[in-house]
Design goal:
Elements: H1 13-21, H2 27-45, H3 49-62, H4 67-79, H5 83-96, H6 101-113, H7 117-130, H8 135-147, H9 151-164, H10 169-181, H11 185-198, H12 203-215, H13 219-232, H14 237-249, H15 253-262, H16 270-282, H17 286-299, H18 304-316, H19 320-327, E1 353-361, H20 366-379, E2 383-390, H21 395-401, E3 406-409, H22 413-416, E4 422-425, H23 429-433, H24 451-461, E5 468-473, H25 494-497, E6 502-506, H26 513-523, H27 539-546, E7 551-555, H28 558-565, E8 570-574, H29 578-581, E9 593-597, H30 608-620, H31 628-635
Parallel strand pairs: 1-2, 1-4, 2-3, 5-6, 5-7, 7-8, 8-9
Helix pairs in contact: 1-2, 2-3, 3-4, 4-5, 5-6, 6-7, 7-8, 8-9, 8-10, 9-10, 10-11, 11-12, 12-13, 12-14, 13-14, 14-15, 14-16, 15-16, 16-17, 16-18, 17-18, 18-19, 20-28, 24-27, 24-31
């Protein structure tokens, strides 16, 4: 269907005004009406709202059903904050002239002010039905869909607006915002940059570009743009804080501190304070961070950003109750890696609710979910039923480990929420069940691997003989920003892999075979690997493989959470973890884990000599009869086992890094 041709605007204002006056108005009064509305409109555009209001009301005394007068007065009182009267006036304008698209668009704006998204959407759609060639109507529809979290619909609407007016900076800005809400920061950055190109002399487009680059952890690139911004705005507090934040993400804490010190004390707002305390936390100065943060929180306890960071500081210091009491404030803070699922259900308060159907949704990463499996058992006797909505890759592990709960992919939750009475975010379980140190006195082995797959892996790993079997993982999938500060290259692990009497297997879930082959070619050292096991997507398989290890040495990744949840000896290295260590040297969540903190000038490579020494001692005291592989085979009666359906084990004689031999 060809698009409707937009009607040409009528240029004769007087004729339009007079035409709406009606036959009951005399010709003389019509002339005075035109003059009154013309003056009122001039005052309105000039910001003289009181004078304009008097003029519109005077006009309506002459012609009470004059559509434009009602509409313009409605817009004016909305600008003054009287949304109730604005809604009444614009509705009367629509009743007087039911086929005028801008009236519906304006009333939709009022409904948007009242956060009645359904009625706002209906009015914007009506405006579009009357005139589908007006880019502003599509833009307003896009914005209301974005506010209602209908992001696909919002994107479709803003694209139609841009089809009609491609260089509309406001529409491009809205599109960037929609991509930001979608967490698609790469596409958002493209749009923010397009806005900046259209408005090169304005501060906000430049600020949005920088903020998006920071979200993308493009810290080096962002620093270049920030320095250009500071050349134009040398005392800009937000740009200085962006610069300090980039230095923090790069692990350049001294440089970050120097930027903070440029900012006068009286001008340091909450955002600057958070950056400052992040430096303290990264350098193991949690007491300093607490002293800075607590007064700000007491002065303004409603600041969620401050409360959330104070929660982390308290947890890092071991102040469990104070930390957990503020922990749920994370659900109100944007862009901290927490996925909030908004359901029209009340939140569970941790008290017994017999018969209630509770759904607990995972708001963070795979590792956090695995750690919370230990707490799920404690929920079961308190409610009627428990459903865990989590990463689809974890549903099997959750069901095996806690048979009394149901597990579903989190993406299904939006279509099934009506099946439940109560909701909770998964991380919030800690606020109920880990408030005191003694709450951590539980069985360290709470994960249940797939027994058949573990046996198949053990039968393959038996080819390594009675050696100590060590699983290694040296980096996370996410190596952006500060996180990369805490990881190793595989070649830096060579002294560990070379330890005599030790067989090393690959537990790195994003390792490519060429990386292992290059390592072998450079060092002659073998890291045994199963090429058919995708340890990123097949977490069940990864858990089963890790359970064949006698020891796991890992960066601060999911592998450490798996090893800890299996109750295996685990040596884990990384940055100081506020809600992980909880003021201890080693994580109370996993009592079989030893933690090697990286902070200050210390780097992961600096702990290699200590790990080698410990590994030699571990090997010397190791009893081959307790080897995990031997134990698994012995418990299974050394029974042969066919691989699980669709699973094969390939031994490549020509590629030592892929072989168990």
């Amino acid at each position: 269907m060809a698009p409707k041709r937009r009607k040409q605007p009528v240029n004769n204002f007087a004729n339009v005004v007079a035409g709406q006056a009606g036959s009951a108005v005399s010709p003389g009064n019509k002339q005075r009406l035109v003059q009154t509305l013309e003056r009122a409109l001039i005052d309105h555009k000039a910001g003289r709202l009181d004078a304009a209001k008097v003029g519109y009301e005077k006009a309506l005394k002459v012609a009470p059903k004059h559509g434009d007068a009602l509409h313009l007065l409605g817009l004016l009182v909305r600008r003054q904050g009287d949304t109730v009267r604005s809604l009444e006036l614009i509705t009367k304008a629509i009743e007087a002239r039911p086929n005028v698209a801008p009236y519906y668009s304006s009333r939709g704006g009022v409904y948007a002010d009242l956060e009645d998204f359904d009625l706002a959407r209906a009015d914007f759609l009506k405006a579009i039905e009357i005139d589908d060639q007006h880019p502003e109507f599509w833009l307003r529809l896009a914005r209301i869909e974005a506010r209602a979290e209908n992001l696909r619909e919002a994107l479709n609407a803003v694209n139609k607006s841009l089809d009609l007016k491609a260089d509309n900076a406001e529409a491009i800005q809205t599109k960037a915002h929609i991509f930001t809400l979608m967490k698609n920061y790469t596409k958002a950055l493209e749009q923010y940059q397009a806005v900046q190109a259209l408005r090169p002399d304005e501060r906000k487009p430049l600020r949005d570009v920088i903020a998006c680059m920071v979200l993308l952890k493009q810290n080096l690139e962002a620093i270049d743009v920030i320095e250009e911004a500071l050349a134009r705005y040398p005392d800009d507090l937000e740009f200085l804080n962006f610069l300090a934040s980039c230095f923090v993400q790069l692990g350049l804490f001294e440089e970050a501190r120097q930027v903070i010190e440029i900012i006068p004390l009286e001008k340091r707002d909450a955002a600057v304070l958070i950056t400052d305390t992040l430096i303290d936390m990264a350098e193991n100065r949690f007491e300093d961070a607490y002293r800075k943060m607590m007064p700000i929180h007491l002065a303004d306890p409603d600041q969620d950003n401050i409360a959330w960071n104070l929660s982390l500081i308290n947890l890092a210091m071991g102040n469990l109750e104070a930390g957990w009491d503020l922990y749920d404030r994370r659900l109100k803070v944007e862009n901290i890696g927490v996925r909030v699922i908004k359901l029209p259900l009340p939140f569970w308060d941790g008290t017994p609710q017999p018969g209630a159907k509770l759904v607990i949704w995972s708001e963070q990463g795979v590792g956090d979910t695995i750690r919370m499996i230990a707490l799920m058992r404690q929920v079961v006797p308190l409610v009627g039923s428990v459903t865990i909505a989590c990463d689809a890759r974890l549903t099997g592990l959750v069901k095996r480990s806690v048979p009394a709960v149901e597990a579903i992919p989190v993406d299904q939750l939006r279509t099934t929420f009506e099946d439940y009475d109560l909701q909770l975010s998964l991380g919030s379980l800690s606020t109920f069940f880990r408030r005191r140190e003694e709450d951590f006195n539980i069985d360290p082995r709470y994960l249940v691997p797939d027994a058949r797959r573990r046996l198949a892996f053990a039968q393959t790993a038996a080819r390594l003989g009675p050696n100590l079997i060590v699983g290694i993982c040296w980096r996370s999938r996410n190596t952006q920003g500060l996180r990369n500060h805490y990881y190793l290259d595989l070649k830096e692990l060579a002294p560990i892999i070379a330890t005599p009497g030790v067989s090393v297997i690959n537990a790195q879930y994003n390792c490519q075979i060429p990386e292992l082959e290059e390592f072998y070619n450079q060092t002659g050292l073998v890291v045994h690997s199963l090429p058919d096991l995708d340890q990123k997507q097949d977490i069940d398989g990864s858990v089963s493989l890790i359970d064949c290890c006698d020891l796991v040495i890992t960066a601060n990744t999911v592998v450490g959470d798996v090893a800890g949840g299996l109750g295996l000896p685990c040596w884990r290295f990384g940055g100081l973890q506020d809600a992980f260590l909880l003021g201890r040297d080693n994580p109370p969540w996993n009592p079989t884990t030893t933690f090697f903190p990286i902070y200050g000038e210390r780097r992961p490579r600096d702990i290699i000599p200590e790990l080698c020494h410990r590994l030699e001692a571990f090997r010397d005291s190791f009893d081959p009869s307790t080897q995990r592989v031997a134990t698994i085979l012995r418990e299974a009666g050394d029974a042969p086992s066919a691989p699980a359906p669709g699973e094969t084990f390939q031994i490549h004689a020509d590629a030592p890094t892929l072989s168990w031999d």
